[in-house]
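Exercise 3.2. Students should predict the tertiary structure of the chain below and write it as structure tokens, then compare their answer with the key that follows.

Predict this chain's 3D structure.
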Amino acid sequence: MGNWQSSILRPEALPVPGSEADRILPAQTAGHLICPAEEILNEDALWLKLEHSFEDAKDASDIRKSTVSALRDSIKAGRARIAEALSKDPLNAHPAIAAYSHLTDGIVRCVHRVATEKLHPLQLPTTSERIAVIAVGGCGRGEMAPQSDVDLLFLTPYKITPWAESVIESMLYMLWDLRLKVGHAARTIEDCLRLGREDYTIRTALLEQRPICGDQALAAELEDRLWSDLFNDTLGDFIEAKLAERDARHIKQGQRYVVEPNVKEGKGGLRDLQTLFWVAKYQHHVSHPSELVSKGVFTEDEFETFREAEGFLWAVRCQLHLVTNRPSDQLTFDLQVEVADRLGFKDTEGRRGVEHFMQAYFRHATQVGDLTRIVLTALEAQHLKQEPRLMRLLKRRKKLKHGFVEKHGRLDVGDETEFLSNKLNLLRIFEEGLRTGLLIHPHAMRLVSHNLDLIDDEMRKDKEAIRIFLDLLLKHGNPERALRRMNELGVLSAFIPEFEPIVAMMQFNMYHSYTVDEHTIQVISNFAQIERHELEDELPISSEILDKGVNRKTLMVAMLLHDIGKGRPQDHSILGAQIARKVAPRLGMTQRECETVEWLVRYHLLMSDMAQKRDIADPRTVQDFAKAVRSVRRLDLLTVLTVCDIRGVGPDTWNNWKATLIRTLYNQTRRALEDGMEALNRESRGAEAKRALRQALTDWKPKDLKTETARHYDAYWQGLHVSAHTVFARMLKDIGVDEVRIELEPDEERDVTRAYVVLADHPGIFSRLAGALSAVGANIVDARTYTSKDGFATACFWLQDADGSPYDVDRKPRLTRMIHKMLKGEVVAHEAIAGRDKIKKRERAFKVPTTITFDNDGSEIYTIIEVDTRDRPGLLYDLTRTLANTNVYIASAVIATYGEQVVDSFYVKDMFGLKFYAEHKQKLLEDKLRAAIEKGVERATS
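Answer key:
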């Protein structure tokens, strides 16, 4: 009781900055603040100020108001001082989070003192009238970001007395009035033990408990009872619970390479590091991660990695809180730019500062993953955690080669000296892992990563080393597993130094879901899945190509190198081809193989661009592509590379629409290469299309068939499938001059809905229809419009909704009404789409320069105007309206979307049916299109 009285009755016994305040902070932050403690919060001066203000207080309400007013000013000043110091050294996070914790501790102590001395004083407290205020969670660790919650445990010896209840209530009201986010619980020691046994979240919070103020003897008793009665002999259960919790969190948050990671909860984030320390503290009763070195859990280098990763992640989290002024932990696109700037990452030639920042982030996240594996496997070695279920199923089935052993279900090195005596073993261990199906033991991982200097130029040229490396890619059927581990340990970059710059490199856009190195591994994983016949139904063409046989080595090396030139000012395809010219011979490839690899890297985007940005119904598109690939052999290789590349961009990038485009271009190009370019002759294709229509309309009279086949120009017959010709034939039959006919038809094969519209032709019809479709929430992914010889427009649009799903055919009545209103002038398109023509705040950070090109060679009939710019819902209408107002006839539009970027390609003629050759006419059109884009962006961001 004497201790309790001294702590609440005698002000001189209270902790003061620099003494008790430091002692109660955990060891990892004690005494290391980002600025002097008294500049953050001078508790002595604050208490004197409060004492003076209490002299005029009439009642308890006045005391609380005075306290809150003074503390609010102190919090504001303290946070400002910490933020100021942090801005000068933004990556020095450990002292900053300790400073925020120090500020919080002082505020809590002051509130406690007011509650116990001024509001609810006790002259002769009983043994039950004691209370200890204990920090738990991040507050207990002494690690707090600017907007972190304040988690407090109010500990009493027995059932809460009325006095204790009053103290707790007064403290909470004052803390809430200070607008602190307080998580709290009032419990006895027995409550803590009972609840800790039942709930692992509570047990984890108690693991990090730290007394702030109040009865020190009571707090010490809790500490002793926790270790003797709760934590002792329960390590295995705690580990299993924490790992299950971690796995569930990863499933919810996504993988390490998600483009908008959660700094706290995501894979490789702060919570993973904290989980490591919780488990280690539970096992070894340590108070600081540095103690894990002496326990054999970390090496000195690994502890340094731990601290660097932890410091970087905390620096990011602090800036997130400061930018948003709320407890925000999600690195959204808009915040990535601002945080990168605050942390000092600058733009360089070829890359934005935000990309450098996110590359650093992902490299730290990868290191966190490595550390996690090390700790968990150390626990496996002590039989505190069961071996992974996969390992229990894959108990060694093959005899290990000399020098390797199995340890706790993983592949390890028998003798370190012998292993390192042959530098090729740094590759052989990955081969042995694939051959036996065993995962590599962290001991072996450490050995490899600590001796990367053995991988030198001599080894890179060694024929056996090259053989092992290529076998890892080609022999065992799952190259992605070896590549991912080699990449994380630095072996891949050591063996192919040109790969190092793209490790953890983020591309700051909404299109790519992975870092460049992870994307490369995903591409190779797709290839392996095709070879394992896992995607035959989804990818029949690629599966058929691989089944009949291709040069797998050429294709695999091209996949490995296809994006190796990214992140530099030059076109990454051109630079990548130059790099491939050096790397491919080093991998022992023949001259012909090297030339093919170089060609594939140089033109790895060609097929995707042709299929998605050009009208593949135009014979010239296929002719030009066929001339570029020159042979069926190269066409096969490029097709597989293209499919794997697109699928490797993100989990939802590949769809039936892209599959159909690639498949159609492949089939038509192969036909041209095998049968000659005359197979693409316009007249023969037109005759085939008319013959197909006659076969589809067997119920029509010959006279009606003759009228239908004669009413269209050649472009109509080559531009649409017979299914569309059939629909239009029925819609045009007996149509009136003033009539508008509309049909919506699901196209499940392409994951789109086709919209057919037939009406009398008039200027600007394409633009008006595009506006009507945008107004009803339809996204146009492709479009064709043709004018018949008797003056009718036949327009076909391929539609999806905002989620990339086929547009709902049940919305046909609404679409029909909107088209009629647009045509009658009752609705103005840009007003109708104004509600959805907005760029979301989190997406405004992306910079997409506008590029407009004119191509008079890509089509025999039309000029192709390609507009590459920032995507938004009303863009297509703005562009088509601008072209219509300039008397430009639009025959078709091809829309290719890449996240926030879109490439709209228009096949056009002038009012006389001619191409746009004159430079001054091109310049006039370009200026008008740019003006429309800029005006639309202003509207979308206002």
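Discussion points: The mean pLDDT is 87. The first strand starts at residue 132 and ends at 135.
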